[in-house]
Amino acid sequence: MPKPVVLITGASQGIGEAMAKTFAKELKGVRLALVARNASNLQQVERACVKLGATFVCDESDSEAVAEMAGR
Ligand SMILES: NC(=O)c1ccc[n+]([C@@H]2O[C@H](COP(=O)([O-])OP(=O)(O)OC[C@H]3O[C@@H](n4cnc5c(N)ncnc54)[C@H](OP(=O)(O)O)[C@@H]3O)[C@@H](O)[C@H]2O)c1
Fold it and tell me: Is 40 touching ligand 1 by the criterion CB < 6 Å?
């Protein structure tokens, strides 16, 4: 069975960044999907995480972009 996905929105800075780093370090048996618009900041967070599923550059105010992200 595939590991469940924890999708963290607003992961490029602030509370979301802190959640991503903490979950990557402490939460076992899951994959992380990090979402925000700023790809550069998101990549910096990704590099700081010790394990990671994927990152998604997405404007969450755009419903089509959110649906496309959910599909991926
Ligand atoms: N900090 C606090 O003490 C506190 C207390 C209570 C509640 N809150 C609430 O908790 C939330 C996060 O707070 P924060 O301090 O971490 O805020 P922040 O530093 O401004 O971070 C907001 C995050 O949301 C992302 N984001 C904003 N609009 C987006 C959009 N349209 N699509 C995708 N991503 C979007 C930003 O990334 P990109 O710009 O890269 O997209 C960023 O990663 C806010 O709603 C805030 O009101 C914060």
Answer: no
